[in-house]
Design brief:
The protein has 103 residues and is of the alpha+beta class. It contains four helices and five strands.
């Protein structure tokens, strides 16, 4: 099962708002593609890579590129619950470590 936490849902909303500024018709398709890419993790949760940051590794963070690598879904697997918890969906261009670390 895939669960998008509130910060990940907020990230999606912000991505959609950003795209709608210039391409309102494209925004919906982009959201659908991002969610479709994320759904891959339901059957292949370990397909994503372990993050490089040691602190985040200890927290179980993995990452999965979505929308052809333009965004990155950060997630944690809870095997006993058969759950993939999507924590954040961030632009691949931004410095995401401070965001994930809460700084």
């Amino acid at each position: 099962m895939i669960k998008l936490l509130t910060p990940a849902r907020q990230d999606l909303y912000e991505i959609k708002q950003f795209i709608q500024q210039d391409r309102p018709l494209t925004a919906r398709r982009v959201m659908e593609k991002i969610l479709q890419d994320i759904m891959t993790l339901e059957t292949l949760p370990e397909a994503g890579s372990v993050v490089y940051d040691k602190r985040l590794q200890m927290m179980g963070y993995r990452y999965w590129p979505v929308l052809d690598g333009k965004y990155i879904a950060f997630y944690v697997i809870y095997k006993s619950q058969r759950l993939v918890q999507i924590r954040r969906i961030l632009s691949a261009r931004q410095d995401y470590l401070p965001i994930l670390r809460g700084k």
